[in-house]
């Protein structure tokens, strides 16, 4: 089974300027994801899709390939992921005659997913052959307990339920939230159907919250830097990662 890893990293960023190459633990943020991908035993090639020459240069220095520069029309603030990945796959097929069974989308804003996480996800796909697999973690708040304001400005449950029935958190059904770390999609599902993780045929690879941090705001970056300090104090990796990387 051939797997192409595509790391998407455009140059523009509103919340954190230069986010994809901001320093995290002495190296650019994107380097964490590149290293996880190139150190995977089951990823065949790792490429970065970017419109930014500096990101391209840094990506190559950490071992990723940058075979093309992303077109401007796919590099805007509101550019969705799927056309970006489709462009990368199509470019590889047309220019290098490279064809893949599954496409692995890795976002550089989730730095703590490990190469072992990637390999475990690919092993699941190799065995089960689903349309897709995404990584997930337990949500901060269970959907059954989330609330919203109605048109009158009063609270009501986001998912309607009988308020007379007490809902104990421990007895609620399992719920998962995708953490943005791993998206693994069958190539034909992505290219022909334009889907990344179709409902009803996508499996889940469960990850702990410690490895699920998605850096979107300055506060997220602050937390990530605290985690890196913890990694250094624990001999290079947090205890939660130790069993995966042995």
List descriptors:
10 strands, 6-stranded mixed β-sheet, alpha/beta, two-stranded antiparallel ribbon, Spore Coat Polysaccharide Biosynthesis Protein SpsA, Chain A, 32% helix, 246 residues, disordered C terminus, single chain
What features would you describe in this structure?
With 246 residues, the chain is α/β, with parallel strands linked by helices. The protein has two domains: 3-137 and 176-245, Spore Coat Polysaccharide Biosynthesis Protein SpsA, Chain A; 139-174, no CATH class. 32% of the residues lie in helices and 19% in strands. The protein contains seven helices and ten strands. It has helices spanning 29-38, 53-61, 81-96, 115-128, 187-193, 218-233, 239-245; strands at residues 3-8, 23-24, 27-28, 45-49, 102-106, 132-137, 147-149, 155-157, 177-186, 202-206. Strands 4-1-5-9-6-10 form a six-stranded mixed sheet, with helices on both faces. A hairpin with a 2-residue loop joins strand 2 and strand 3. The relative contact order is 0.17. The model is unreliable at 241-246 (pLDDT under 50).
């Amino acid at each position: 089974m051939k797997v192409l890893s595509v790391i998407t990293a455009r140059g523009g960023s509103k919340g954190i300027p230069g986010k994809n190459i901001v320093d995290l633990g002495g190296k650019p943020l994107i380097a964490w994801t590149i290293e996880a991908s190139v150190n995977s035993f089951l990823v065949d090639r790792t490429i970065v899709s970017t419109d930014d020459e500096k990101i391209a240069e840094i990506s190559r220095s950490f071992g990723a390939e940058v075979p093309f520069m992303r077109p401007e029309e796919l590099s805007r603030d509101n550019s969705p992921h799927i056309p970006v990945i489709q462009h990368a796959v199509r470019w590889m097929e047309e220019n290098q005659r490279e064809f893949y069974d599954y496409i692995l989308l890795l976002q550089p804003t989730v730095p703590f997913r490990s190469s072992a996480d990637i390999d475990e996800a690919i092993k699941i796909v190799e065995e089960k052959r689903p349309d897709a697999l995404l990584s997930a973690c337990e949500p901060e708040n269970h959907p059954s307990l989330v609330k919203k304001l109605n048109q009158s400005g009063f609270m009501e449950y986001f998912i309607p339920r009988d308020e007379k029935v007490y809902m104990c958190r421990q007895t609620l059904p399992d719920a998962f939230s995708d953490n943005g770390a791993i998206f693994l999609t069958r190539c034909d599902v992505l290219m022909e159907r334009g889907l990344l993780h179709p409902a009803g045929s996508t499996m889940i690879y469960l990850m702990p919250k410690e490895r699920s941090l998605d850096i979107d705001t300055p506060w997220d970056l602050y937390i990530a830097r605290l985690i890196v300090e913890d990694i250094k104090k624990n001999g290079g990796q947090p205890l939660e990662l130790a069993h995966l990387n042995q």
